[in-house]
Amino acid sequence: MEKSQKKAIGFALLAAALYALNSPFSKLLLSKVPAAMMAAFLYLGAGAGLLIIGLLQRAVGKKSREQPLTRRELPYTVGMVVLDIAAPIFLMLGLQRTTAANAALLNNFEIVATTVIALVLFREAVSKRLWCAVALVTVASLILSFEDKTSLSFSRGSLFVLLACVCWGFEHNCTRKLSSKNPLEIVVIKGFGSGLGSLVVALLSGESFPKLTDILCALLLGFVAYGLSIYFYIYAQRDLGAAKTSTYYAVAPFVGAGFSLLIFWELPPVSFFIALPIMALGAYLAAVEPAQKQNTKESN
């Protein structure tokens, strides 16, 4: 394995570990912060945090060697922002209706969405092994979403989380098209664009501003779990592609589920323990696949 790919894998795992903080700590804050407002502050925290880092770098005379975004990338930039308005709102709505551990594990459905979209729309090569991983994650996601075997109904909370994953699947592929550009600039645009958009949605839906301390907590969580996570995720995509990076990112739901169990001490339903080994096997098959099988066939 090349040194650049090892470094990219390290960035992907670091991004996953940071994002793992999102579900449990967002669940805590959602008792005080409305869903759309929460999504807004998460992204605003990401944008503001990376903007401050960029300003500090300029203040000490550190010049960026990264290429800035141009008009050519405008469609993908707009798509990234719009999808990042919808996805976290769906996730927050899901977190209000299901356990944090369940939502964290369901986030692995991003692998499915990202991989299928990467293949169909962006023509990334997808191996048989990765398809097997996708199938296992899909089965586990269905088990987690199944609420009542007698009425054949599905959990609304789980379905909202799955909708968020689909949005993020499209968003990951849009971001992949921008990954050769300055990651810091991408996160700042993503953070402020998606954050302000979500804030407008929150205000139009009648949500009110929470206490200042809760806003600051949400902004800090957004900086760490969204801002820094996305920053390292973009670096990983440069060498791994969208589909492959999403498989290493599959570590995040398991870490997030662990945090959720420790924080809330809430015992998940039986379906969680049935789905856990299936999801783990799917994530393992995807993550350990040889990187050379994931060569991309992109046309810019």
Give descriptors for this structure.
300 residues; mainly alpha
Which class of secondary structure composition applies to the elements? mainly alpha
- From the structure provided, what is the oligomeric state, counting identical versus distinct chains? single chain
State Rg.
18 Å
Q: Largest sheet at a glance?
A: 2 strands, antiparallel
How many helices? 12
Describe the structure.
The chain is mainly alpha-helical and 300 residues long. It has helices at residues 3-19, 22-29, 35-59, 74-95, 100-106, 109-120, 128-145, 156-176, 183-204, 212-248, 251-264, 270-287; strands at residues 146-148, 153-154. Strands 1-2 form a two-stranded antiparallel sheet. A hairpin with a 4-residue loop joins strand 1 (146-148) and strand 2. The two termini are 26 Å apart.
Brief overview, please?
This protein has twelve helices and two strands, in the order αααααααββααααα.
Topology:
Blueprint: H1 3-19, H2 22-29, H3 35-59, H4 74-95, H5 100-106, H6 109-120, H7 128-145, E1 146-148, E2 153-154, H8 156-176, H9 183-204, H10 212-248, H11 251-264, H12 270-287
Antiparallel strand pairs: 1-2
